[in-house]
Amino acid sequence: MLTSLPYSSAIPTDAAEKFLTVFGAEYGSDALPGSGESVGGYNWLFMYKAAAEKAGTTAADEVAEALVGQSYDGPTDVMTMTDSHHVSQPMTIVKRDGSKNSFVSTPESLDPNQPACG
Question: Could you tell me the CA-to-CA distances from 73 to 5, 20, 33, 70, 87 in Å, in that order?
């Protein structure tokens, strides 16, 4: 069975490998993040940090404005905030075999503002 995920431990990138190494050191070498959404939250912390630093404040309106155009290269690959405050990020295609995911591909990210994405 093929499926599309924002994150899988099967993603063969340096950032994904580093994330799993750090995660395993903290929670055990056999531990895996609970879901792709949890890794997305991890990414968001870094996006928020960069935007707050750019804005020079944690005021919501100013951070929201500073988020536009921000990118973060993390375990899910590069994600970028669009001017409509949607995130453009790759979705990984994996083959599910029992409890194991095998990497298939990561298609090019689509602009979430495209009509085909709405």
Answer: 17, 15, 18, 10, 13
Residue of 8, 55, 67 whose CA lies nearest to 35: 8
Q: How confident is the model at residue 115 (pLDDT cuts 50, 70, 90)?
A: low
92 and 8 Cβ atoms separated by less than 8 Å = yes
Rounded to 5 degrees, φ, ψ at 88 are -95, 120
pLDDT in tens, 65-76: 999 999 998 888
At 104, phi and psi to the nearest 5?
A: -110, -60
Are 24 and 31 a contacting pair, CB within 8 Å? Answer: yes
Please count the helices (runs of H) and the strands (runs of E) in the chain.
3, 6
